[in-house]
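Troubleshooting entry. The earlier prediction with NAP gave an output that would not parse, so I re-checked the input for stray whitespace and re-submitted. Clean input:
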Amino acid sequence: MAHCLIVGGTGMLRNVGVVFAEAGHRVSVVARNKERLIGLVRDTQRSPGVINPIVADYTQTEEFEKKIGEAIAILGPISVAVLWIHANSGDAAGAVSRLLGNQTEPCQVYHVLGSQAADPTKQTADRSPFEQLEHVSCRSVVLGFKQEPAGSRWLTDDEIASGVLDAIANDRIDSVVGTVEPWDERPGA
Ligand SMILES: NC(=O)c1ccc[n+]([C@@H]2O[C@H](COP(=O)([O-])OP(=O)(O)OC[C@H]3O[C@@H](n4cnc5c(N)ncnc54)[C@H](OP(=O)(O)O)[C@@H]3O)[C@@H](O)[C@H]2O)c1
């Protein structure tokens, strides 16, 4: 039974929390909307694991970091973290990396990234805040698109959650859900 963290876990990643709880884990889920978090707790009540709802805004770094720190103090060190954090959200990823940096137990971070991360015209040399942490292995899951006879389309929530679960189950270091090539054929291009 591990302590897992899902940041942004009541939207498209909701089913990742459900599957973790069904597998018997303690799952801390961060989001702002309390009702949606309570709905997730309710829907997993019969699971062998448990959802620990954390109502927090990840743009409010100090409070966000404090609340996850409290969860670690109660539920133990985090073994798996799944992060879906929108761009321009302050230092949310940095906050998670500071908390994980204080752990001595191994942790795998699955950083879910929007398709912009695959834009060949905007490739940057941004370093992951998790790269330097001794006990942390960082994996990226880029959300791409699907190509169909009628044209390309973005991914559904089910496809995204399944793709993230597949990356975790197979410990994929860099994975893409759907495709990001050819980039010019993405929806709306
Ligand atoms: N490449 C693709 O095909 C692709 C990529 C991305 C998204 N999408 C689609 O687009 C839809 C909408 O995407 P979305 O980005 O809104 O994702 P989402 O996963 O549906 O919602 C975002 C999640 O993050 C939480 N969140 C957002 N801002 C937060 C904050 N400041 N602090 C704490 N938690 C926060 C939300 O809960 P709260 O609002 O309660 O805080 C929710 O749990 C998805 O349903 C997905 O299917 C497709």
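This one parsed fine. The first strand starts at residue 3 and ends at 7.
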